[in-house]
Design goal:
Distance between the termini: 84 Å
CATH topology of the largest domain: Rossmann fold
Strand content: 5-15%
Order of helices and strands: HHHEEHEHEHEHHEHEHEHHHHHHHHHHH
Low-confidence stretches: 1-6, 81-93
Radius of gyration: 27 Å
Largest sheet: 5 strands, parallel
CATH superfamily of the largest domain: P-loop containing nucleotide triphosphate hydrolases
Helix content: 40-55%
Number of helices: 21
Number of strands: 8
CATH architecture of the largest domain: 3-Layer(aba) Sandwich
Strand order of the largest sheet: 5-6-7-4-8
Number of domains: 4
Length: 420
């Protein structure tokens, strides 16, 4: 039997294992292992104990099945501390530490939810309590709707969670490659119960980083971990992501988060110290953007501290004149709607004919018609100098769709209410 063992080709075993799993899993986890056959046992040496435990739990059955085909047993061990060549990476001699700022704890009470956002808030709380069946949770919405705040809340309320922005993930992955600590980086990202990536769109166009992240999502999900992602638009509308990536990101639970309504804005202002009567008067005149609302509250608070005394409505209107008026101009309305619909203002005004882009452009025309006194020709000027006939056609198309699409109708009604 010993003689038969010597005749087994390790390369053949590797090829058979590679055929049993996807390419990314093979290159990320199995290919880096050291293969050796000793006394009818296939000995696989991992970089460290975490890698050995993870491979055993996720890919152990596959490895055993292949080994049985050669009448072998399988043993996973941790690679020893023998000398390593300078170009090799070994986590026994190298370590990884992220370069990230600490995030102050944030409770879910900090997120003021409207009725429309009750569902996404509930899902976020569910993730924070432990393992869920809908990983990854993909939260999307325009800037200022509270995506980052929810991500911070989940991080604060979870046990053993990692929170990164998309930009940080790109930077840390690049740094790990440069420092030859990529396996330690992989271990760090997987050694958690919940992994949160805020602004996943930052990965667009970065092929190697994208592949690494998608494998991370699959590995975490396979081991029963939670993944939370945020973006300004739904997975299917992410630019720079291929269909495989979009499909994976949408495979768990996709939840949209809507902009703050008047009541939420009023509550945010009052919580920040703005007088109730002032908050009541200006809430409807501020953009539905949490960042802008915070800016307004900070300006009022700072004025009160520096000048002394209570900020009255008259003083607030003087301080915020530009802010309150700017949002109600037609071009500001169009730009605000572009954010909510997940398209760029330049694309709306351009010649693009992609289905989602055309739909967004037509929706904007309908909203302007119903929330302003602009003529059809004037409306066309704000969406790329479209002529009267184009605007009229767009409005008719949307009106036909509204008759059978209740969600579209509700979305347009909300946009109209926010612009009036």
């Amino acid at each position: 039997m010993q003689a038969a063992t010597k005749n087994i080709d390790v390369k053949t075993i590797k090829d058979m294992i590679a055929q049993q799993m996807d390419f990314a899993a093979w290159t990320s986890w199995i290919a880096p292992l050291s293969f050796e056959i000793s006394d009818n046992v296939l000995v696989l040496a991992a970089q460290n104990q975490f890698s050995a435990d993870y491979i055993s739990s996720v890919y152990g059955a596959t490895l055993q099945n292949v080994a049985r085909a050669f009448d072998l047993d399988v043993k996973l061990v941790v690679r020893g501390t023998a000398p390593v060549s300078k170009i090799a990476n070994d986590n026994n001699v190298q370590s990884y530490a992220p370069v990230m700022d600490a995030v102050a704890p944030v409770a879910f009470d900090a997120f003021i939810a409207s009725d429309e956002n009750a569902f996404v808030l509930s899902t976020a709380k569910k993730v924070a309590t432990g393992a869920v069946s809908f990983s990854p949770l993909f939260i999307y919405g325009a800037a200022g709707t509270g995506k980052t705040l929810l991500a911070d809340c989940i991080k604060s309320e979870s046990q053993n969670a990692i929170l990164m922005t998309g930009g940080q993930f790109v930077a840390e992955f690049t740094r790990a490659l440069h420092n030859r600590t990529i396996f330690a980086f992989k271990d760090f990202c997987r050694n958690c119960d919940t992994f949160i990536l805020d602004d996943v769109q930052a990965l667009a166009g970065k092929r190697a980083t994208m592949d690494e992240f998608l494998q991370l999502v699959m590995d975490l999900r396979a081991s029963g971990k939670n993944v939370v992602l945020t973006a300004p638009c739904s997975p299917n509308n992410l630019t720079g992501f291929d269909r495989r990536a979009q499909s994976l990101l949408a495979s768990g639970l996709v939840a949209d988060i809507t902009a703050p309504n008047a009541n939420v804005k009023r509550t945010m202002l009052v919580r920040a110290g703005v007088a109730t009567d002032v908050a009541d008067a200006i809430a409807n005149r501020i953009a539905n953007d949490g960042h802008m609302i915070s800016g307004v509250a900070n300006k009022i608070k700072t004025y009160s501290e520096l000048m002394g005394g209570r900020v009255t409505l008259e003083i607030a209107e003087h301080l915020l004149g530009d802010t309150l008026e700017k949002f109600k101009t037609p071009i500001a309305m169009v730009k605000n709607m572009c954010e909510k619909l997940g398209v760029s203002y330049d694309a709306i005004c351009g010649a693009g004919r992609a289905r989602q882009l055309v739909l967004a452009r037509q929706m904007i025309m309908v909203v302007l018609k119903n929330s302003t006194r602009l003529s059809l020709s004037e409306i066309g000027q704000y969406v790329g100098n479209r002529d009267h006939a184009t605007v009229m056609y767009a409005i008719k198309q949307i009106e036909k769709m509204q008759a059978s699409d209740l969600m579209l109708s509700a979305q347009i009604a909300q946009l109209i209410a926010e612009c009036k």
